[in-house]
Design a protein that fits this description.
- It is a single chain.
- The chain has one domain.
- The longest helix is centred in the N-terminal third of the chain and has 16 residues.
- It is globular, with a radius of gyration of 14 Å.
- The chain is an all-alpha fold and 142 residues long.
- Helices cover 51% and strands 0% of the residues.
């Protein structure tokens, strides 16, 4: 079981199992890094253009300090766990996940696109002041 799914279950949440765990783990890892404020250049150092080691779960070895825990909580909220969201947001995040999660672990173009469409609000909005009206508040949607 992945770190993220295990984390959700320990928090009393039901993980979304429609996606492959490896792809979901790398997607959540990218979102955590974006929340912390790391740019695409940092992602490139870790992953490179499709030249990463086949690590089962990138979150499992991440330092579990307060920044990581806060970023993981924000990402969990963003992905529709823990707090209720408006129907429009639920539909948008479902589409967003279907666009990004499948194949994410090895698809550099998808990874790069995620880092390029993020808005500053994703890393700058205080946790308690986050808004969940639309995904486009945090990511430019095409």
């Amino acid at each position: 079981m992945s770190f993220f799914r295990d984390y959700l279950r320990k928090q009393g949440q039901q993980p979304d199992v429609q996606f492959d765990e490896d792809n979901e783990s790398w997607f959540v890892f990218a979102l955590v890094l974006l929340r912390i404020g790391f740019p695409l250049s940092y992602w490139n150092l870790i992953v490179g253009r499709g030249k990463r080691f086949r690590q089962q779960d990138p979150l499992a070895d991440f330092a579990e300090g307060p920044e990581f825990r806060n970023a993981l909580l924000f990402v969990s909220w963003f992905l529709c766990f823990f707090i209720p969201k408006p129907r429009r947001y639920l539909e948008e995040i479902s589409s967003f996940k279907k666009d990004f999660v499948p194949g994410f672990a090895f698809d550099y173009e998808k990874q790069e696109r995620l880092f390029k469409i993020v808005r500053p609000e994703f890393s700058r909005t205080p946790l308690q002041e986050a808004t969940w009206e639309t995904v486009s508040h945090y990511f430019r949607t095409e």
